[in-house]
Amino acid sequence: MNSLPENTWELNEVARNTDILSEISSEFDIEANPGTTSNLQFYDDFDSHLWKANYLLCQVNKQQFQLIDPSGCIGEVGASSGARFWWEFSGNQVKDKLQSLVGLRAVLPIASINLLETDFSLRNDDQKIVVRGRLTQTMVGNKIGLYLTLQALRGYAKYYTRAAQLLRHFIKAEINHFGLRFLLMVQGIQALEPKQGALLSLTEDMRTEQAVRAMATAMLVQTKLYVGGVIADTDTEFLHQFRVNVRKLRSLISLLKQALPTSMLDTLKPRLSSIAGKTNKLRDLDVFILAQDSYRAMLPANFESGLNELYRLIEKQRKQEKNKVAKYLSSTEYRNDVATCAAELSQSSAFQTPMASKPVLQAVKKLLLKRYHKMLAMSAAINSQSADEKIHELRIEFKKLRYLIEFFVDLLPKKRTGKIVSEIKKIQTVLGNYNDYCIQIEFLNSYIDDTRIEMSKALSGLIAILYRKKTEERPKVEGALADFFTENMTIEFDLVFEAAETGDSE
């Protein structure tokens, strides 16, 4: 069965100053309903997770939102005044969906659209309704749009065709998928644009120093995207992403330092280290606060007063530390450090070292092989008696190995490299879990205070539980290392990342 025609068109400038329905009144009797107005406020997080998943979060009133899914179905969700995080909304199903889509990110206003919608019907000489339609006027700021939708009714397709012909002089363009998402798209909402610096196009024969300078410059630009959110304390992910990008930048410089001039390293390394170090304490406090529910679940109810005292202290310290970080990121010191790094990276390549002028793919493959075999030796030296520091050192090496692959993934064999990265991620999870217990125990120990009896009791209880979990995790670490560093993995690394030139060495 053929579907009935329904189309929407964007109308031209002439239509704005014309009662366009009167243009067809000679052939149709028109019934127009009173126009309805609405102001729609749309929300999304910084990374546009809702938009990318084809969802829209629209505020209906101060305490009511609608979550519109990709099929157009609407779920209602209540919210407290000023709600920004998924846990501040009510309504289990929609709330759960928000959690899965945005995680720890805050949802913020991204766009506001004013709508004036007028529904109408067209009747023929027999007073039968033969066409239904809607005029939609949109306003975003000073930008106005006007749209016409016509829907044919069964048995009356010829009237639909005639109405469209009579209005053709007002039609600017046909809209294939008209709706709220389309209206947002045509406005070019800046908040929905990809949050990334300039895309790099590396080639395998690009000289290594040139490639590193270009990549580092892009990474430095990327860090700037998160500074405003850290200063405003919009959500904890801004600080986390800021730190991740700084860490990746530092790793790139460190991993490929043999391709860079000594003067460049002397300029970049202390400044990047200082920038990262200024945010360490705040991130530690954030992580502890985010884990609050799991910590509370570990202890019996009689420890609650001690935990409450601890978290009051942590929250107070976080506020102080947040202000210190915001002050630093707003300072001349920070701006000068970033400007100095950017200026250094923008200098012409000096090619002062043998690696600097080599094709980047050749240099990277050699580094990957060298790093893997170093890690293989480190793993072989780890046993049940090894200090936690040795595991931590190997965890850092895995992180750098993965970074090095991901930095240059576009130049490497995609399928086989992807399998290696997948295995690296698995062992990073195990090593990360073990390291988390070590860090948490150390963090909590620093808060034990004999003058705060109830708080110290709660801390001691948590430390004991975490130490037990850490002990249970240790055999998993050794098992994961044995599963990763196999003869097959060594062969795979040698095959995938073999040196571009046989016998080439430094």
Which helices and strands appear, and what pairs or packs with what?
Layout lengths: L5 E6 L1 H4 L12 E4 L3 E9 L4 H4 L3 E6 L2 E5 L5 E6 L9 E2 L1 H11 L5 E16 L5 E12 L2 E10 L4 H10 L4 E5 L4 H8 L20 H17 L2 H6 L3 H20 L6 H16 L2 H11 L1 H7 L5 H26 L2 H14 L14 H21 L7 H20 L6 H32 L7 H32 L2 H10 L10
Antiparallel strand pairs: 1-10, 1-11, 2-8, 3-4, 3-8, 4-5, 5-6, 6-7, 8-9, 9-10
Helix pairs in contact: 6-8, 6-13, 8-9, 8-15, 9-13, 10-12, 12-17, 14-15, 14-18, 15-16, 16-17
Structural account:
- With 506 residues, the protein is an alpha+beta fold.
- The protein folds into 3 domains: 6-191, Hypothetical Protein Pfu-838710-001 (Beta Barrel); 196-357, CHAD domain; 359-506, CHAD domain (Alpha solenoid), CATH 1.40.20.
- 53% of the residues lie in helices and 16% in strands.
- It has 18 helices and 11 strands.
- It has helices at 13-16, 49-52, 92-102, 157-166, 180-187, 208-224, 227-232, 236-255, 262-277, 280-290, 292-298, 304-329, 332-345, 360-380, 388-407, 414-445, 453-484, 487-496, and strands at 6-11, 29-32, 36-44, 56-61, 64-68, 74-79, 89-90, 108-123, 129-140, 143-152, 171-175.
- Strands 1, 2, 3, 4, 5, 6, 7, 8, 9, 10 and 11 form an 11-stranded antiparallel beta sheet that branches.
- A hairpin with a 5-residue loop joins strand 5 and strand 6.
- Helix 6 packs antiparallel against helix 13 (332-345), helix 15 packs antiparallel against helix 16 (414-445) and helix 16 packs antiparallel against helix 17.
- The longest helix has 32 residues, at 414-445.
- The protein is globular, with a radius of gyration of 30 Å.
- The termini are far apart.
- The model is unreliable at 499-506 (pLDDT under 50).
